[in-house]
Design a protein that fits this description.
binds NADP nicotinamide-adenine-dinucleotide phosphate, globular, NAD(P)-bd_dom_sf, eight-stranded mixed beta sheet, P5C_Rdtase_cat_N, 219 residues, NAD(P)-binding domain-containing protein, 8 strands, Rossmann fold, alpha/beta
């Protein structure tokens, strides 16, 4: 599959490593330009590109930049992507890092709803509570008792199914955590955030979440 990854840090770098290892055709971009991604490209075989080119022809695009950088992404970012492109949002709002986002703090928008407003495209929220290192180290075949499960939220059923299939191919089970308005259930400091467990525990943790934004994640 042709996959574009915007952000080549902890999460974007490790997704590039694993997705290329699985044989996917990965284009990867960061803020500083493709010439700064030659080491990652040599290591993985991914194609380093400018942000504007990352989504070209892609069936899945992963946006994995700090939330504060989302408004800086170029408009038309998804122009040229496949018509049915699924856009994965891995983002989390850390006010200390991202600055105050009024729409999240005051209007109660979920972090991913805010992000999709900037992208102008629906997103599927996934990997936001996954340790970057686990993407490399903790993938397991289907049926393995140690296989971890990741919550996946999104409004578009077909896009969500495509993303869940990719995550399962990456070596993780998935749990449907609802739509984007429900995705507070997997935001920072919820029971499922950072939980390294299987389907049953992840399902239980999602059910136990509180819609109240935790004090540590308010500005
Ligand atoms: N780290 C984790 O374990 C983890 C786990 C789950 C979710 N997350 C969330 O996922 C997101 C990414 O986290 P991360 O830890 O991977 O971040 P990171 O290591 O800081 O990497 C961020 C990447 O985004 C790129 N970037 C920044 N601004 C950009 C722009 N305007 N255009 C294009 N690329 C831009 C950076 O490029 P340059 O280096 O060139 O600036 C860098 O490659 C965050 O919202 C984070 O909260 C992180």
């Amino acid at each position: 599959m042709k996959i574009g990854i915007i952000g080549a840090g902890n999460i974007g770098g490790n997704l590039t490593r694993r997705l290329t290892a699985l044989g996917h055709d990965v284009s990867v971009a960061n803020s500083r330009g493709p010439e700064t991604l030659t080491a990652l490209a040599e290591e993985t075989g991914a194609t380093p590109v400018r942000v504007e080119e990352a989504a070209r022809g892609a069936e899945i695009v992963v946006v994995t930049v700090p939330l504060k950088a989302v408004p800086d992404l170029p408009s038309g970012l998804l122009d040229g992507a496949a018509d049915d492109v699924a856009v994965i949002d891995t983002g989390n709002y850390y006010p200390q890092r991202d600055g105050r986002i009024d729409a999240v703090e005051d209007d109660g928008l979920t972090e991913s709803r805010w992000t999709e407003g900037h992208l102008g495209h629906p997103v599927i929220k996934a990997f936001n509570g996954t340790y970057a290192q686990d993407i490399l180290d903790r993938h397991r075949p289907a049926g393995d008792p140690g296989r971890l499960a990741l919550p996946v939220a999104g409004d578009d059923g077909a896009a969500k199914a495509k993303v869940r299939a990719l995550i399962e191919e990456l070596g993780f089970d998935t749990v449907d955590s609802g739509g984007i308005d429900d995705s507070w259930r997997q935001q920072p400091d919820t029971p499922v955030y950072g939980l390294q467990e299987g389907v049953e525990a992840v399902t239980k943790a999602l059910a136990e979440a509180s819609p109240e934004r935790p004090a540590a994640f308010r500005a």
